[in-house]
Fold this protein.
Amino acid sequence: MNMMGAGNASFYHKCGATGTRSFQKDAFCVFLNSTCFTLFRLFWMNIFALEVPMRVPLTALLTYYRNSLADADRMAPDDNLVQSALLAEEADWSEGQLHREHAEQLWAARSPNGKTEIDEWGRKRYWYCPWVGTLKPEHGAQRHGLPLRLVPLWIPVRVTAQGNIDPDPVLLPWIPRNLLDPIYPARLVLGNVNDADTYVAANVWTEPEPLDEETPSEFRRRKMQLWIEYGQKLVEYVTKQSWDTFHLEEYYQEPQGVAIPAGAPSAKISGLLAHYDALIRDKITTPPLQRFIAGDAFPSSDPLASNDDPRALHIAHLPGFPSLSQDQREAMHRACVHHPDVLAVHGPPGTGKTKWIAELALQDYVESALNEEPNPPIQIWIAGTNQAIFSSLGTLRGSIQGLRWAYPKIRGLGIWCAAKSQQKDFIVADHDWLGFKWTDGIPEGSPSQWGNEDSVIEAAANYQDAARLHFGQHMELPDIKQKVWEELHKSVQPLRTTWRLLRRDRERKAKVDALLNDANWTGEFEEYAKNVQTLHAKRKKALERAHYIWKEWRAHVDTTPLWVTLTASLPGAANRFLARNKNFFERFRLKLRGANMADNDSINMALQRLIRDIENLAQQTQATWQGIRRLKMEKDDIATQWINLADQWNETPRWYDDGSIDPQWELMCDTKYRSNATMWALRYWEAVYLQRRMAYYSDARAGRMRSKYDGWRELACLTPMLAMTLHTAPRYFQEGFDDRDIRPMYGIAQRMVVEESSQLSPDIVAGLLSYARTAVFVGDEKQLLPIWSVPEKTDIGNLMAHQLMDHPGQLNQWKESELMASCGSALLRAKKAGLNVFLKEQHRSHPDLVAFANRLCYDNKIVPMRTDYDADWPAFSYGHVLGVIDHQLGSKGNRIEAQAIAQYLLRMSPILKARYGVAKLGDAVAIVTPFVRQVHWLRQECQKRLPPDDVPNIGTVHAYQGSEKPMMIFSAVQSVSGQDIPFFDMDSTMLNVAVSRAKDAFWYVGNMNGLHTRGLRPSSILAQSLVKGKYQRLPQWMLPFDTPHDLRMVNPMSSDPAARLEVLRSFLYEMQAGTLHIASPYFDQNYLDDIDFWTWAHRAVQRGASVVLHANKPVQTYHGDSTASDMVRTASSHGIQWQWHDGLFDSRIWTANRMAESSSPWGAPLEGGSFIVYEGAVQLWCQAQMGSWGNLSKGHTFGQRGDES
């Protein structure tokens, strides 16, 4: 049913094509389609899919991932982009030249991601479509389930500022993948993706050459006509319709085409696609790839004994890092003992996830040097954004610079892998970097500076000089290397002995406790030992006496006369026999229970039973006493070794009777001893690097070449952590020379670290796991989710086409597996397939910020640990700003919010710099917003008002995940009405990311009318934090003056519109003289008429008062400029004055001794909004501020508030 025919139908529904038919037949078919499809889904999902296990063949899944990535780059743009696209005349585009006005308009449009990409010929990337369809309504109502506007063909082009158009050199024209089979359910299908692939393979595009005597404009025209024709023929081949008569029954064709700025270039995923192709071809799998796809999670309980010390395997520490917390040490222990193929490290921001991973990687680096392995472990760190990479590199830096002997200027353990074109970015960012090009067995960039022959000779000399100063003698490189290894061993061995002794002592104490518990002894161990010793001696003596009695008894029996024995049963003689035996035992003062003294056999049995009982008791006490002696000897041995260890440390380790180490001593182990081990490991691998580089140049002169594998292992001696974005990783780790000869370096790295993996879908990450032998996924599932590029319908179709899903009833199983390209998460998949490490101790943020996150997302699982915060500086503050939303290409902005933030930063810059001790404002403050459009306004306004060095980092919430700043400003982009639902209410992770980036303070800027303190929505939880406790409204920087210190708040915050109106009228009614000021960013003529404002104001003027309206120029209203001019004339006719300003953002009304401030415009018909009324002496203050609008008066201290209670 999904194959296109040659008729007029352009797409098909699941149960048949829609054609010309009667209304009754059409309605019946729609009903039948819906009913049958619902019954079909219920049948499969509830009958067949209950117990069917999900099969995941590796090759099929890799092919599915590969094709999902390819599909993601061929999807239809968002419907909002299409609706806001620029109109395009086909004649202009086919001519290869746009008119000037059209070119300027197109060139000014911003791309959806907010980035401007201009190639080396000064061209921008655009997508053009000559055919656009608009969905027809049915019976006057809009249809549902189909896009409002449909574009069947996108033609990629490059356009210059002058309007010259060229075919895109990277992308070919394409039909959106979500309009092609396989998709499920197939509501809208133009054809099959295989047909599109067949056409492209059979019709290879080759850019034409210019003809003789052909002008550039003529050549461009011919080239564009061929390019557009190529796309049109693609549509004809796939849909089986002629382009000239192409139509879709449910759509009518727009008279003009459209053009939009292009998104990200396809080249970013080409490397991933090539790697998947090689992986499928070579049929290679690695342990992390296999476990990620098909593995089960590790058991949640740790199988190790509880007395295993988590510090026993921890031998290295990055200098400059704080000591690991107990939470992190226990996680380190589990990872070092289990050595999992897949490890998921998750937890809230500020819990030290990246730091913990750096420590884990450092253990391997130091351990390999300690074991004298030939190569250090290579660690690949990948992330989806540059911001996350730079954050990781900062963590990997520590305080390493200066510790090396040969290369003291190397900045850390990590190096940024990037193209040479980005070199300037890394110089500015102060990071070591490398590029794709290799020379002399090393990549370009920093390694080429370290590893050229002259630098190696100089570095070797520096190494020898430093060694001579340290060891006191001149040595050759191999001898220095051996000495350095010995120092490394000296650093690590006492460290391991410390924790081994601690573990022994803990085990000894556990045995003592078990011994006392078994004996039900509540006293001290020494007292118990003395008691057991005494008891053991008594039982030993008793056993000796029992054996002596037995010996004497046997002699007694043997010496008994025969006639006495024979006559013992006769009357009278029996008594003599009984008396003789009793006399024997009375001599030893022994009474045998249960023995017949007249029967020797009975006496024998009783006496042997007594001996056995005494022997058992003696053996028990002997075993107990021997165990006690061993415990005492072990205690003495441990104490002796502690003394010997103190001689090695040159100071005594401090430990307690309960087996714990003094926290200061534990801190010293990290900051001194483990850091020393790291330092000597760095110097050890430096020696290895110098030896290898010298050997390389000797081999090169002899004509012997080395592989790229050797080059990476050599570089890992200096920088074992290679940081890069995931899209560039395939280019670095393959030995092929072109796209047809790709040979990936499978398993080259010991570990791959995937940063911010909660933002990544599994199809992007899975193939890269073949580069490593283990993988670590770092992230927080409560932060931003992946941005999936493949819709679910297309994804289901791909799963079924690759025979990974037998029927739709298995969809829930696939969703739960987190393996789907349309809804899966790499972090959640790693949690299901590997060892889980959850870090919960938050050391970074203000406790109030942690409390907010606990309530919003984490169910009080986070433990706030920070204590060095300023309690007088509120963690949450807000600035109430009104504004008008503007939309562009599916995004929106609020320029007034941007102006308010920029103006505030201008005034607060000296205070914030002094507070945080920074020279640049951007080191203390960052601004985030949900929208790309608002990023544009914020940058524009900040660049206009602030010095270049003070412009802070500005970006979307997605771009800023993984970073942190002392202060975060959140631009909410709320409208003036405040009635629209906040964008972050749709997904709590966005607000969680924005707040968790802040260390000290989070400032919300937007229309507070959009927030309500009731409920459990993200915006409600935020509103409760913003108004909690002390009045946390920011100083009145929205107006260029602040609340004076002597104002007294006479009524609490109110949100009653009637009360707000009454306050406004009371000011006008009570005004007898002086001046009444009314400031508001918006005025509405109709509303002012309705409340009879002009009459009340005119009466106040007649009584001798002056009324001044403060407004922006031009006056901002809801009804356009015409109403604004009418309002100005009306005010003047009533004797009311106007004062004009630029950047008025807040609402106030005040007289000489009274003031009211409102969260809604006084002169606008808005429901809700809150206000506060103050009383006090304000006249001089108002005059001082109004005298120089926009500037602080002399002597005024900004940001201070009086007592408002």
In short: The longest helix spans residues 600-649. The chain has a mean pLDDT of 80. The first strand starts at residue 12 and ends at 13. The two ends are 73 Å apart (CA to CA).
